[in-house]
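Sequence design from tokenized structure. All designs in this work follow the same two-part layout: the structure record, then the generated sequence. An example of the structure record is given first.
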């Protein structure tokens, strides 16, 4: 008679229970998957092999788009997703309405900051990049180009007091050609370098005076012409905001003086005793150029 391997009844029952439990778990998992429940891990930067991961646990729709759930970002920030309201609410108090790619803001959307600021426009890989409009809680607005959350490219910054700058930006600083119109009526149009007037430009003062020429480090320096509202003018060298060097001063009577100037004064030599005084010259630093960077 052959020996038969007989499994003890308690062990057989245990095996049946484990198999049934495994089957039940499988059925539940399949049911949850069919319902749209997902746990996703998405690289922050797919092109970086050392990148960190953002995670999502929740429900996706038939197209695979996030429907309801929670995002945990690599930097510790979390967000609740609710497709019914179309809003993503972040743990820092910000809210976002717009498109996502790989769990990050990407495409067009509106971001409402907890501090009251609002941005509407383009996003790329979670950053404000492209074209958009940023409205500050203090009433200032900026519309134009952005790169990684900073004003970059061509744009218009309007202060709440009515001052306006239209022109180029480079990483939040005015750069290149631009026009700054102050609320008091003063206007500068010309070149900027890293937020200061530098290069060739024209400054029109509220009192009607006009300077057109070269600027260096936010002051009149180099060659230029200053024309007073009363019609008198000086053309020549400037340094420290005043006529310094060789130049020609012209009075409204048509009389002119060509010669040397120091700190805005005619250097009198033999034959220049009858030269008149020159007018008071405006200060280019009366109005400051200070815009607020997007957070």
């Amino acid at each position: 008679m052959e020996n038969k391997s007989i499994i003890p009844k308690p062990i057989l029952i245990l095996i049946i229970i484990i198999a049934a439990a495994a089957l039940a778990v499988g059925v539940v998992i399949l049911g949850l998957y069919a319902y749209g429940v997902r746990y996703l891990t998405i690289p922050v930067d797919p092109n970086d092999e050392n990148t960190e991961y953002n995670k999502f646990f929740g429900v996706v729709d038939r197209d695979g788009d996030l429907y309801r759930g929670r995002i945990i970002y690599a930097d510790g920030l979390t967000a609740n997703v609710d497709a019914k309201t179309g809003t993503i609410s972040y743990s820092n108090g910000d809210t976002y309405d717009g498109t996502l790619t790989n769990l990050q803001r990407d495409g067009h959307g509106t971001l409402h900051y907890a501090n009251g600021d609002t941005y509407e426009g383009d996003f790329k890989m979670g950053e404000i990049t492209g074209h958009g409009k940023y409205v500050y809680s203090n009433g200032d607005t900026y519309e134009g180009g952005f790169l990684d959350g900073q004003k970059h490219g061509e744009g218009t910054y309007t202060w709440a007091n009515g001052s306006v700058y239209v022109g180029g930006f480079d990483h939040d600083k005015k750069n290149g050609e631009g026009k700054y119109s102050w609320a008091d009526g003063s206007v500068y149009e010309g070149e900027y370098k890293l937020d200061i007037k530098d290069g060739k430009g024209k400054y029109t003062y509220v009192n009607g005076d006009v300077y057109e020429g070269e600027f260096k480090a936010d002051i009149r320096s180099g060659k230029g012409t200053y024309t007073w509202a009363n019609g008198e003018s000086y053309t020549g060298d400037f340094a420290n905001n005043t006529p310094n060097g060789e130049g020609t001063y012209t009075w409204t009577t048509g009389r002119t003086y060509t010669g040397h100037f120091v700190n805005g004064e005619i250097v009198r030599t033999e034959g220049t005793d009858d030269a008149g005084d020159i007018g008071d010259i405006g200060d280019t630093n009366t109005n400051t150029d200070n815009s607020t960077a997007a957070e």
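The radius of gyration is 34 Å. We note this feature because it recurs in several other targets discussed in the main text.
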